[in-house]
Description:
The protein has helices at residues 5-17, 28-37, 44-54, 69-86, 92-108, 123-145, 150-153, 166-177, 213-220, 231-240, 255-269, 277-286, 302-314, 344-360, 365-382, 397-411, 417-430, 445-458, 464-479, 499-515, 517-523, and strands at 328-329, 332-333, 490-491, 495-496. It is an all-alpha fold.
Amino acid sequence: MPYRSGTDATSLLSAMASDSHGSISLSVYETARLVSLAPWLAGHRQRLRFLVRRQRSDGGWGESDGYALVPTLSATEALLVCLERDGPSVDGTLVAAADAGLRALSRWLRPGISVPVPDLVAVELIVPALVAAINASLDRLGARLGAERTGWREVRLVLPDGMDDRHLTRLRAEAEFGTDLPAKLAHSLEAFGEVAPGASFARPRLGGVGCSPAATAAWLGAQAPPDGAGREPVAYLEAAQDRADGPVPVCTPVPVFERAWVLAALASAGVEVTVPAEVLAGLYAAVGELGAAAGDGLPTDADTTSTVLYVLARAGRPRSPASLCAYRVGDHFTSFPSERTVSTTTNAHVLRAMGAWLAHRPGESDRYGEAMAALSTWLCGQQEADGTWSDKWHASPYYATACCAVALAEHGTGQHTGPAARRAVDWVLATAREDGSWGRWRGTREETAYAVQVLLLAGTGQPGTRITTAAARGAAFLLRPEASEHPPLWHDKDLYTPTRVVRAEVIAALHLASADPAVSALLDRTDTAGGG
Length: 532
């Protein structure tokens, strides 16, 4: 199989090492928040054009299965604010886009309709905040719209079943009182409304608040800061949109996250590559008493910490996983203290990090062996009946299943880990698409890479014919030219794509396929590249 994983990996690492921000896809949600909160910021018209271009034919924005709700609320609210500001002079294209957005939201958020609400970051704050903002905007516009928009006068959105605004109301009151709220809330400061500007619990780090353009704009307030005042936050916002000339990602900069996940993917697959010394040094320095954070302005978390620790151990620079103990709750680990939902992939990454540490320090098995055994049992208990895992950080079960199945296959202990990995492999085999790909909504390179990794890393020791054939067809799909950009699948306030991380996962999958003699030989046959 003529694939040079080392060459592709070296090119990827070179680009990554020279970029202190990280390559994250553009966000409809975050860009719309800048339209609403910072119309004074350069790039405003480009952001509006971005929103119009990204609108779906049904009036919504975003993906299926409830993932359209948050970006559609954000974009529609931003367009209504533009109509309020500019009145009759507003571009008719924007009015039409706002109208289509409202019609979509009216179908989803009305009494008797139960729209699914995916577990996105701060969704329990963002949805009530935006629903209230849209209803208030429509109330203000009602007297001005006249006969041409009489339909808007009847539109009032309701919250999805099971959701209310009590938590948001309490947090806003605490912020107004000056309470020192958890640091992670700074990332969604824009949901705090009128109490967000200058909020004492959310302070800029390297200019940005909560590693978020929207949160930073909310902290600055609706008016352009005077010359010289707020210069660092403004510079942060300018840098966040620099490459796209207007639109922004949902979270930036996140170099620790990007570098850790890229290197972990390559290391897990055994891709031999020289990691730039400054990259490893930066990851080593990122680990403090409570671990590592994905980026400046974000709190430390067990997911980033465990992934950084795994990378350092695999690179021969191991650091103790003792910092992870702060996140342990009984038989598993939380990503953050006091989180709403636990993450299966965070726990898989903790298991992997401890296993990599013990490879260097086997004498500490008494200290970490019990935690690994408890984690193994807990992860097996989270597996669905069909063999999959799901997770709070990703929309696709292929990501969570790859993380959990591979961690259990390589580092799990106990009698249930082998059967759990086999069930995952069986599910992957059963869900392959006709073109050799895998995916939740459609076949994607990212999800196909995860599937191939499950087959070749967690399928060790299982009867190989079906695994070999499926892995070869998946690799053939990955070798085809990319027809379109990677769809967003990762959870933040909006779905996003960490493009270099996805590229690393593809490189990892192709390396595994090329290193397996049976898969590589089968891939060389022309019939594996097509549908049959």
